[in-house]
Amino acid sequence: MRELRFLSLTGMLGYGYALESLRRGLARGMHFLGADAGSTDPGPYYLGSGQGFVKPRQVRRDLEHALCAARAHRIPLILGSAGGSGARPHLDSLLAILGEIARGHDLHFRLAVIPADIAPDVVIEALRQGRIHPCGPVPDLTEEQVRSCSNLVAQMGTEPFLRALDAGAEVIVAGRACDTAIFAAPAIRAGFDAGLALHLAKIAECGALCARPAGANDGLLGTLRADHFLVEPADPERACTPDSVAAHSLYEQPDPDCFYEPEGKVDLAACRFEAVDARTVRVSGSRLVPARRHTVKIEGAAPGGYRAVTLAGIRDPLVVAHLAEIERGVRAATAAGLAGEIEPSAYSLRFLRYGLDGVMGSVEPAPPVPPREVGLVIEAVAPTQEMADTLVSLARSTALHQSFPGRKTTAGNLAFPFSPSDIAAGAVYEFAVYHLMEVDDPAALFPVEIREV
To answer: How large is the average pLDDT for residues 318-335?
Structure first.
């Protein structure tokens, strides 16, 4: 094979894509279609609860067109991190939609299902053997944290996808997976350079996000050759440029010269990004430095209580100027009002001041002049929903009338955009496991199930 061509449908299955982009890609003779279907970006709730953060109606729309197109053209469709977080409940939800589509269109194909769930005992045994290390600035793992998780997954690399393709899979639905594995596995299997394949996959996994105008909800065409690869947006109204593609090579990476995958370090120090035409970029020089030991990232989410929130606007300049004092007074009054019912150590109460420092918090530089308007979010997290609701209600009513230095008016401090003003937000989950685990055989963690649909 002199070149391998594929279409990354969209940055996330369910984000949508232009059907014309799909048709345009297929007309170019694609060897496979692929899409990432999940992420940890929305936080731990979705892994912990087993819920998807993209709604089933959106997933069905994207999947139906892609599946029918892939079967009509007799090319594989490859999906990773199914259902959002890639645990068994997420995998099953996507498979249910896939089955409905297949029955509705009378489709017949060989399906590979690759679960990513990992047993707590496997992680605990590795922990006792000293084979688990933090992934970034997180604490060392404990056995208690492992057992607290409602869902626990390992993030697969290319190896399980290779086995699925070797087994003749025409559709692959995988649990939690590295984004690159979805697109790099067919290329590595076809004998292309692994460094180039992984780098192309890293760029392609977000769809047309590397193009201008950027579009995570549109497709990207990838072409891999012996010593370089090409990227081009499927929509003719978008364009890839050397700077846009080089910039996206740094996406989510702390080091501009490399990024790491289970297969090893992808060295970008010698990369060249060159314009082929007004819309296409040629990339060369990427190389893989194979890993000396096998590691997989493991992710687990555990229950952390229940949340309630309220949202208010502040327009009085004196209130804006004294928000810190108001917050201190509200905290003290809330703790006093619930004394004997709940200890302050058993709940959290957050004040997010959008317009001042709602995003950056204490590291936000002080504005040269106070903003005219501030949005205030008060969040309570407690062991029960009733207690979280009570906490946010008490904090909200106290903040509404809290005194502060220089106050003249007797009116309320806060303007509420909604009635009721308080929102019971339900269960809270926290990442309890976000670590790297050394393994002798990563294949053993990810069994490939072959089904005839």
So the answer is: 95
- Report pLDDT digits (tens) over 143-183: 999 999 999 999 999 999 999 999 999 999 999 999 999 99
Question: According to the model, what pLDDT value does residue 249 have?
Answer: 84
Of residues 218, 207, 176, 202, the one with CA closest to residue 84: 176
pLDDT at site 136 = 85
- State the angle between helix axes of 179-189 and 158-166 in degrees (0 to 180), rounded to the nearest 10: 50
157's tokens: 């690399």
Strands (E) in 219-321, as ranges, are 220-224, 229-233, 258-261, 264-267, 272-275, 281-284, 287-290, 294-314
pLDDT at res. 439:
95
Is residue 437 within 8 Å of residue 294, measured between CB atoms?
no
DSSP state of 191: T
Residue 277: the pLDDT is 97
DSSP 444: G
How many Å apart are CA 210 and CA 235, to the nearest integer?
13
Tell me the chain's radius of gyration from C-alpha atoms: 25
Q: How far is CA 150 from CA 36, 145, 300, in A?
A: 23, 11, 7
Q: Which tens digit of pLDDT belongs to each residue from 245-296?
A: 999 988 888 898 999 999 999 999 999 999 999 999 999 999 999 999 999 9
State the first-to-last Cα distance of the chain, in angstroms, to the nearest integer.
29
Q: Helix H segments across 149-303?
A: 158-166, 179-189, 194-204, 242-249
Query: What is the DSSP pairing of strand 77-84 with strand 32-38?
Result: parallel
Q: Which of 247, 246, 223 is nearest to 233 (CA)?
A: 223
* Cα separation values, 96 from 53, 171, 278, 431, Å: 16, 14, 42, 27
CA–CA separation, 254 vs 43, rounded Å? 20
Q: How many CB atoms lie within 10 A of CB 279?
A: 19
Backbone region of residue 84 per phi and psi (left: phi > 0; alpha: psi in -120 to 50; beta: other values):
left
3-state secondary structure at position 7: strand
φ, ψ of residue 124 in degrees (nearest 5): -65, -40
Q: How far is CA 164 from the centre of its chain?
A: 24
| CA atoms of 51 and 34, how far apart (whole Å) | 22
| pLDDT value, residue 421 | 97
Integer Cα distance of 196 and 41 in angstroms: 26
